[in-house]
Amino acid sequence: MTSQALNPKGPTGQRFHILAPWSHSIFTHAQDIQAAKDFLVWLMDPKQVAGWYDIAVSITRPICTCSTTRRCGRRNRAICRTAIRWRRRICPGWPAPISRQQGESVAKYVVVHMFAKACGGKSTKEVIADAAAQLKQIFKPA
């Protein structure tokens, strides 16, 4: 999704937009954990974060509906307000629940490597078979 247009509807008439969740963390060994927490509270305050949305021209948008009432890119406010209705979290394998195996498939770049091999000249059937074999290994029952 480029956030510049609504995604097309699928065969069932549904559409969805993948919206990236933001997450911040603080290491337990940080020297000043409270200051780090205070900084994150300040950083994500609507007065601070609204500027990010505006500069990003709606490319960066939270999953929450607060973006429907705040600035959401000068050119794309209508797209932003509409797309939020069809939001889905970024998750390989969605709508399945998040799992360790999904994380492993992303960390090993299975799909990315599949496309890279295809672009490198391998046959489509071969690269799909390779990726399927890797995914079967990752997702096999423990």
Brief summary:
With 142 residues, the protein is mainly alpha-helical. It has helices spanning 33-43, 46-55, 77-83, 100-107, 110-119, 124-139, and strands at residues 17-19, 87-89.
The oligomeric state of the chains shown is single chain
Summed over residues and divided by their number, the pLDDT gives a mean of 77
> Strand content of the residues, in percent?
under 5%
Give the topology string: H per helix, E per strand.
EHHHEHHH
| Class of secondary structure makeup | mainly alpha
The rounded distance between the terminal residues' Cα atoms is 35 Å
- Dominant shape: extended
Instruction: Catalogue the unreliable spans.
Output: 67-74
Radius of gyration: 19 Å
- Compute the number of strand runs: 2
- Order of strands across the widest beta sheet? 1-2
Helix content: 40-55%
Largest sheet: 2 strands, parallel
Number of helices: 6
Q: What labels describe this entry?
A:
142 residues; mainly alpha; two-stranded parallel ribbon; extended
Could you walk me through the main structural features you see in this protein, from its secondary elements to its overall organization?
The chain is mainly alpha-helical. Helix content is about 45%, strand content about 5%. It has helices at about 35-45, 45-55, 75-85, 100-105, 110-120, 125-140; strands at about 15-20, 85-90. The protein has a two-stranded parallel ribbon. Helix 4 (about 100-105) packs antiparallel against helix 6 and helix 5 (about 110-120) packs antiparallel against helix 6. The radius of gyration is 19 Å and the shape is extended. The two termini are about 35 Å apart. The model is unreliable at about 65-75 (pLDDT under 50).
